[in-house]
Structure formats: C-alpha cells, structure tokens
Amino acid sequence: STPQATQPVEFNHAINYVNKIKNRFQNQPEIYKAFLEILHTYQKEQRNLKEGLCPPGYKPLTEGEVYAQVAKLFQNQEDLLSEFGQFLPDA
Amino acid sequence: SYDFTPMDSSAVFTLSTMAKKSKESDS
Fold this sequence. Notes:
The structure holds 2 protein chains of 2 kinds. By secondary structure, chain A is an all-alpha fold. Helix content of chain A is 64%, strand content 0%.
C-alpha cells in the first residue's frame, strides 16, 4: 500500500532535515533521540485522535507545544530551529 | 547516502505530514 499522498517536495525536505539533524548531533545522540521522541509522541497522539482513541477532554500535543519542546532541545542551533518552523502551520 | 532507522523514517513521515497540514491550512 502507498503511504499517504504526501507532496514529494515536502517528503524530500523532511528527509534532508532529519539527516541534517542526525549529522549535527552525531556527538550528542541523546539530543537527536529526544527529537525523534517528540515527533513520535506527536504522531502517535494525532493517530489516536483520528481514530477516536482519546478520552473526552484529552488534549494532545499541539504543533506549538512540539515547537516549544524542539526549541528547548535545539538551543544555540538557530538554523535548525528556524528550519523546523517551516514544517509547522503558522499558529 | 542515507542510513535511516525505522525511528528516523517515522520522524520523516511526521515532518512531511506536518508540512502538508501546514500547507492545507495556508489558503
């Protein structure tokens, strides 16, 4: 089965970005891992939300909260953070 | 060359989904 019809340009951008982060934090794998965890949590919650698995009143991670967490992680890495912002809807 | 683990691929997928969402909410 094909993955969701994502625009190839966005997909390529995402691949390049993840690769860049991986390289940047080669010597700090825990930062890279934390980044993956944040995205993983977000994705999981979005899926649960879509499938109606969240209890009423449950507040999943918003894009803004994801950004805030990543910002904390990427301190002093302004370029990575601003590039990350390009993936998010303008709040 | 890219040496991606399943977690890496999952991050790529999440990012591109976010980007798509962001584009949709643009107009």
